[in-house]
Amino acid sequence: MKIDFSQLDRPGTPEEELKEKKRREREIADDFEKRSQRCKHRVNITISADPESRFSMSGTPMLHLCGLDDRGRSVRVDYFAPDHMSRDEFHRYFEQFLPEMPLSLQGYWKPFNDRHGKTHFTFIAQFIELR
User: Fold this and answer.
1) What is the DSSP string of the chain?
2) In terms of Cα–Cα distance, which of 91, 99, 65 is closest to 79?
């Protein structure tokens, strides 16, 4: 079976390209707004282990970091890539993080219970900045 890729919907005319560009800008702005609303806390960490590139159960690329905060406490961090970020963009973004790198994170704490009933917290980063 052959797949005819010429049937894919692609912007062809300048008007369609402009419409697609505006749609993407709107998508990025909406994502930024949603992420901003979820930012309840700020945490400074220094990465203590190699960052991991993972995928959520729904296939969303995510970055997993382990680090130490300013008081020496261990912090687990998950960052879910925005929908508008391509896999190539995500991999370029992921590759910049190295052990011993100081970061400033904005996001929220998400609790989870282990199999023994003990509550742990993961920081769900919405924004990551180099310190």
Assistant:
1) ----GGGS----SHHHHHHHHHHHHHHHHHHHHHHHHH--EEEEEEE-S--EEEE-TT--EEEEEEEEETTS-EEEEEEEPPTTS-HHHHHHHHHT--TT-EEEEEEEEEEEE-TTS-EEEEEEEEEEEE-
2) 65
What CATH number is given for 40-130 in this structure?
A: 2.40.50.140
The pLDDT of residue 16 is 85
Q: Domain ranges in the chain?
A: 40-130
For residue range 2-14, what is the model confidence (pLDDT) as tens digits? 777 776 666 678 8
pTM of the model: 0.85
Residue 123's pLDDT is what? 98
- Nearest partner of 71 among 50, 51, 43, judged by Cα: 43
For the chain, list residues with pLDDT below 50: none
